[in-house]
Amino acid sequence: MKDLVCLHAGTSGPATWDRFVPAFEELGYRVHRPTLLGHGSAPRRRPYRLDDFRDQVLDELDGLDRVTFVGNSLGAFVASAVAAAEPAKVERLVLEELPVPPRDAQDGDPGVRAIPTLGLLAAGWLSRRRCDPWLLRDVIADLRRPQPAWWAGLSAVQAPTLLLAGGPQSHLDQTRFGLVAKTMPTATVTTIEAGHRIHSKAPDRWLDVVRGFLAFKGA
User: Shortest CA distance to 81 belongs to which of 97, 100, 102?
Assistant: First the structure.
């Protein structure tokens, strides 16, 4: 049986994937849903750095062979970072609303609508039962910094990759998915106009696209 790892967004949790598990199992996957650092009962540490989430998932994959990833937002970035660091471990990638950090100091911000620091803190405190209230602030600050090693690693990822874009309702800069697709040899972009949390807002359309991608043997 193949292994599929579902990675949730910041302030979310593994339960966000519950409705899709039966469909993934029908495709022959053993589904894993880790809880990312700072969420639920997972360890809390400050500051939260993107590399820490990547290393956590790599540790949890120890003992597994090739893995397929499905990730949303922070989870999508973590999945892509695992693939960039260990491309041989990854069979396929579904990256939903991937936040795309700058390549250098002249490159663009991942978002088109800036979130003020006070807004980040307020969002963190409102979700404090699910996650560390400081987590969003740290993660977004790191995503706004250039990540040249991540960009360099993407070019080595040979796994078929589906980049899911949420369209104009999303706060992310949708043009940046095309930059990632040009860097990754086998990436394609599909837009489902439902905003940042496509799998929550348009679950049926999301599942149709993802299931078709995962079942396509010629990819």
Answer: 100
